[in-house]
């Protein structure tokens, strides 16, 4: 059912309408109330005994049981209904409150089929959004910020930089939410390109003065962190490529040179790999270590685009020149000759398809290993291609149905086209009448797979939404249509509340996974950034990016109160204190107090006299330490302790960055007294999380002494959220890679109470929950009806982990990593019965794990191949040395020839190692493809093999293996030298008659003088690293 409701209780102001959709399920108390029941209930409420105060819980249950049998509805169900209605938490329910609840639960309104069809299908009239920036300066670059960090970073998705150095952060609807003017040394210096270094929380910006500057995210200060100088040309384009071992920053300059800067072990180092903090403000290019920086002249003209290819250090780049329009640089540089050059490209590793967009407006599909002919040419654009993107729509059953792939292209005349890579047909085309850049040329553009939209810029920002359902990258059940921002568990009603970017809120039954209610938009077009429950667990607090906070009766979707800050900037954290006041913090860098939260007024403003100031960066989290005391932290590691009276007073101020330089704190949770002994009540500890030194970390911090007691490196990705069990003995962490880890913190108990440095927690279990970043986790504990239910803990409680992610899903797991299901799936579950759980991992997670396993297997095979080549070289060297030594002892060659031969054998392979490794690999690959793998054996190695086979079995196997290796160059040279010497002695004719291979004429009697001690013993080699 769907209805539009308004708040109309007593003297409250009217609330903005929200859409409410209820879902009928069996067993609700409301289903048993008929009209005659309601008339009799009205008479009961009109009783003078209850008319003024209303009914308390006992009276309410007794009155309801007069009309509904106890066998049908239990007293516990009626108590839950009473608490849903009593949102004021005064312990009484009056007739107005009951009518409001029943009205919201039953009033129906049909869905709009037109809007539903528009949401599910793509039409020619695609929604176009245009955002005018304050300064009409052309935008130099627009780049993604892949959301991997909660609170401070997850609320914006795009970063734009104008030519004069104004950097802005935008939400998915392109609304700018933060703008900073970068400090430039000269007015003539312009910004050219930018890229986000996601794991490090930084952005790299290139400027026209041939410098590269790094800034921390979010850009709250205009000064750069450091800069690299000394480039020969201006950097025109950049890309950041992540891998399992090394992160790579790829840069293409105006002279056609590609610069590669590698970050080993996922640490942000520029001068040394040993210490992530070892860098200076101004770093000349010549000071960079050649182990981490190198460059290559790839194109004859400036580089238009660049992207990572496969292994670290490999890339694909393009230019507007014909002979080297596109280059795939891995083991060699494969150049693609394309008329008029290439301005955009994209590569799909899944289907091994490389698509190029030319200046001639044609799209060409290539095999990346074949550069002389395109597989297909797609025509339709009339101007040069500016951007390309390959999007894959996965299927749940990947074995029976292949994933469908689409191609999105944008040309310079602002025409967007959607193609099918299987049929090569154009599915959708948006003409310039729909996409109008305002008369200015397009200076930057990109495709956002998260919102399925094309974003392009001139002096304004524009986006064309193409339809999420068609281009969705996941075949799994979705909890929301947009990425989730938060999830919370309500233990009173055993319900889960989720929120997404489009400001929609869903209420779920945790025990079965059913959706009970959907309402929104909760904050109009603003994104919901935080969910929290009040102390009574009956009402819901939501914070938004527009600076508003709302109090809800979440069981019916009714807004009870709206709290407004003075500065309409994002609220990142809020909570309700024990005395009923609401405390909030966010991008205004202040602590706001809302005292008038008794429900008398709908609109409530922050107390101007009680604002707490002191933070120099965005406030990311607020926790209540004890009555009247709160603690807050900011993104730059500042930790304040406040005493909340009539005004907010700062009692202590500490900084985590004094102990962990360049850390970014994204959240904080209080370490409750349950962990401490009664004698240590004065110490208040908090657990902070975020990133430090390019890795995800968790810190245990004492707010009284300002001392960090423990630093735990959780992951190479940023830690986005941490939850602590009530007893403090277990901690759950979630990172930007979608991994959940459960830690045992029992060892912290004695260390914290003793005041000493605490030891690191012990990892109990971990699992991959999502393929994209986890934005929020929540812990839930439910009690089973039967304590002996299989899968429950020994105390009969089922402990559950809820994970909300950027992939639009909220998944439910046991504390041991068992997959229960996804909120929104059709199949119900019983959280206490493991037989109802999903038996397999989510399809996208299973696919990613399989792909990672294949990559690890390929890497292992490459390592084994390299080890085998080293063994071959060693065997060939030993065999050649033994041959000359044996012939010398047999009197066949003089000592001088034997010494020279042994010296050449020892030095030959090391001298020609690099040259032979490249040439022989290419020749062998060609021969194996055309003629098949045919092992070659030379005369000298065959002679040595026959000698060793008569002498010793171990030596025979060693030389027999060496005889079948492809080492033609060295063995033929040695055979030639020995043949010349034999001709001088006049014995060549005898040798040719006895052997077809040259030196097999050696008789065993002639080799008896060779001692066994002179035979080389085989070495033991391991094929594993």
Automatic annotation (TrEMBL):
Q: Pfam families per the record?
A: WD40 (PF00400)
- On whether Calcium is a keyword of this UniProt record, the answer is yes
Looking up Gene3D superfamilies in the UniProt record yields: EF-hand (1.10.238.10), YVTN repeat-like/Quinoprotein amine dehydrogenase (2.130.10.10)
Annotated InterPro entries: EF-hand-dom_pair, EF_Hand_1_Ca_BS, EF_hand_dom, WD-EF-hand_domain, WD40/YVTN_repeat-like_dom_sf, WD40_repeat_CS, WD40_repeat_dom_sf, WD40_rpt
Region span, Disordered = 901-971
Q: Write out the ranges of the repeats annotated as WD.
A: 342-367, 477-518, 528-562
PROSITE patterns noted in UniProt: EF_HAND_1 (PS00018), EF_HAND_2 (PS50222), WD_REPEATS_1 (PS00678), WD_REPEATS_2 (PS50082), WD_REPEATS_REGION (PS50294)
Give residue spans, biased composition: Low complexity: 917-962
Gene Ontology MF: a single term? calcium ion binding
Q: Where is the EF-hand domain?
A: 73-108
- Alphabetically list the UniProt keywords: Calcium, Repeat, WD repeat
Q: State the protein's name.
A: EF-hand domain-containing protein
């Amino acid at each position: 059912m769907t209805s539009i409701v308004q708040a109309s209780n007593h003297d409250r102001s009217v609330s903005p309408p929200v859409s409410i959709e209820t879902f009928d399920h069996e067993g609700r108390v409301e289903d048993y109330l008929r009209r005659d029941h309601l008339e009799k209930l009205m008479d009961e409420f009109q009783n003078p005994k209850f008319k003024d105060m209303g009914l308390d819980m006992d009276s309410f249950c007794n009155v309801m049981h007069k009309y509904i049998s106890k066998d049908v509805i239990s007293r516990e169900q009626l108590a839950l209904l009473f608490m849903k209605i009593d949102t004021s938490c005064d312990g009484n329910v009056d007739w107005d409150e009951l009518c409001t609840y029943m009205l919201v639960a039953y009033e129906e309104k049909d869905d709009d089929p037109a809007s539903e069809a528009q949401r599910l299908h793509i039409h020619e009239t695609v929604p176009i959004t245009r955002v005018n920036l304050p300064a009409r300066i052309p935008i130099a670059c627009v780049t993604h910020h892949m959301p991997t960090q909660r609170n401070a970073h997850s609320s914006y998705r795009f970063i734009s930089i104008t030519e004069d150095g104004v950097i802005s952060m935008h939400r998915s609807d392109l609304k700018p939410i933060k703008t900073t003017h970068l400090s430039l040394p000269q007015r003539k210096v312009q910004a050219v390109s930018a890229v986000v270094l996601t794991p490090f929380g930084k952005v790299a910006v290139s400027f026209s003065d041939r410098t590269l500057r790094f800034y921390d995210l979010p850009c709250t200060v205009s000064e750069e962190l450091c800069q690299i100088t000394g480039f020969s040309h201006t950097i025109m384009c950049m890309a950041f490529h992540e891998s399992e071992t090394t992160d790579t920053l790829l840069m293409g300059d105006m002279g056609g040179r590609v610069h590669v800067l590698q970050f080993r072990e996922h640490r942000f180092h520029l001068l040394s790999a040993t210490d992530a903090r070892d860098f200076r403000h101004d770093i000349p290019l010549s000071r960079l270590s050649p182990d981490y920086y190198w460059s290559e002249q790839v194109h004859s003209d400036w580089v238009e685009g660049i992207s990572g290819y496969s292994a670290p250090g490999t890339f694909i780049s393009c230019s507007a020149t014909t002979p080297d329009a596109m280059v795939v640089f891995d083991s060699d540089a494969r150049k693609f000759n394309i008329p008029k050059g290439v301005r955009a490209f994209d590569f799909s590793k899944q289907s091994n398809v490389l698509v190029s967009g030319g200046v001639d407006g044609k799209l060409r599909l290539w095999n990346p290993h074949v550069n002389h002919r395109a597989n297909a040419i797609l025509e339709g654009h009339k101007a040069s291609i500016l951007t390309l993107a390959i999007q894959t729509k996965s299927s749940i059953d990947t074995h029976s149905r292949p994933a469908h792939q689409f191609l999105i292209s944008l040309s310079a005349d602002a025409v967007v086209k959607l193609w099918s890579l299987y049929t090569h047909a154009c599915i959708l085309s948006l003409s310039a009448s729909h996409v109008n850049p305002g008369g200015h040329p397009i200076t930057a553009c990109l495709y956002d797979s998260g919102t399925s939209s094309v974003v392009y810029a001139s002096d304004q920002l524009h986006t064309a939404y193409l339809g999420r359902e068609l281009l969705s990258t996941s075949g799994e059940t979705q909890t929301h249509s947009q990425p989730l921002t938060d999830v919370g568990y309500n233990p009173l009603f055993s319900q889960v509340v989720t929120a997404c970017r489009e400001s929609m809120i869903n209420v779920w039954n945790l025990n079965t996974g059913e959706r009970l209610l959907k309402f929104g938009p909760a904050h109009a077009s603003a994104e919901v950034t935080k969910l929290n429950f009040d102390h009574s667990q009956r009402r819901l607090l939501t914070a938004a990016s527009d600076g508003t906070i709302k109090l809800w009766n979440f069981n019916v979707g009714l807004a009870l109160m709206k709290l407004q800050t003075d500065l309409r900037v994002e609220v990142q954290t809020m909570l309700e204190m024990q005395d009923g006041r609401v405390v909030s913090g966010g991008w205004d860098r202040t602590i706001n107090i809302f005292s008038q939260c008794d429900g008398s007024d709908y609109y409530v403003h922050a107390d101007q006299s009680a604002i707490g100031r002191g933070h120099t960066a965005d406030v990311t989290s607020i926790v209540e330490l004890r009555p009247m005391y709160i603690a807050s932290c900011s993104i730059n590691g500042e930790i304040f302790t406040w005493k909340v009276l009539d005004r907010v007073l700062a009692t202590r101020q500490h900084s985590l960055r004094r102990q962990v330089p360049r850390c970014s704190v994204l959240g904080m949770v209080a370490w409750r007294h349950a962990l401490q002994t009664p004698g240590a009540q004065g110490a208040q500890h908090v657990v902070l999380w975020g990133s430090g030194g390019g890795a995800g970390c968790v810190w245990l911090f004492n707010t009284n002494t300002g001392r960090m007691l423990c630093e735990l490196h959780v992951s190479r990705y940023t830690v986005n959220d941490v939850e602590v069990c009530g007893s403090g003995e277990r901690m759950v962490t979630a990172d930007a890679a979608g991994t959940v880890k459960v830690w045992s913190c029992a060892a912290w108990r004695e260390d914290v109470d003793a005041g000493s440095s605490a030891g690191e927690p012990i990892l109990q279990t971990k699992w991959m929950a999502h393929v994209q970043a986890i934005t929020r986790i929540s812990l839930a504990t439910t009690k089973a009806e039967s304590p002996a239910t299989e899968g429950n803990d020994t105390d009969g409680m089922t402990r559950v982990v809820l994970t909300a992610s950027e992939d639009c899903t909220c998944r439910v797991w046991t504390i041991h990593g068992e997959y229960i299901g996804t909120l929104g799936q059709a199949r119900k579950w019983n959280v206490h019965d493991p037989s109802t759980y999903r038996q397999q991992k989510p399809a996208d997670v299973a696919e990613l794990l399989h792909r990672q396993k294949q990559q690890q297997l390929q890497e292992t095979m490459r390592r084994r191949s390299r080890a085998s080549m080293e063994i071959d070289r060693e065997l060939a060297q030993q065999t050649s040395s033994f041959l000359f030594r044996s012939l010398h002892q047999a009197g066949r060659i003089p000592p001088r020839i034997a010494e020279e031969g042994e010296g050449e054998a020892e030095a030959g392979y090391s001298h020609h190692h690099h040259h032979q490794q490249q040439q022989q690999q290419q020749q062998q690959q060609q021969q194996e493809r055309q003629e098949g793998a045919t092992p070659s054996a030379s005369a000298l190695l065959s002679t040595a093999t026959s000698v060793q086979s008569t002498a010793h079995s171990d030596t025979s196997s060693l030389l027999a293996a060496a005889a079948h290796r492809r080492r033609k160059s060295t063995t033929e040279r040695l055979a030639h030298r020995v043949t010349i010497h034999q001709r001088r002695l006049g014995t060549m004719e005898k040798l040719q008659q006895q052997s077809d291979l040259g030196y097999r004429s050696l008789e065993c009697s002639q080799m008896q003088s060779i001692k066994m001690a002179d035979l080389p013993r085989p070495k033991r080699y391991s094929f594993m690293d």
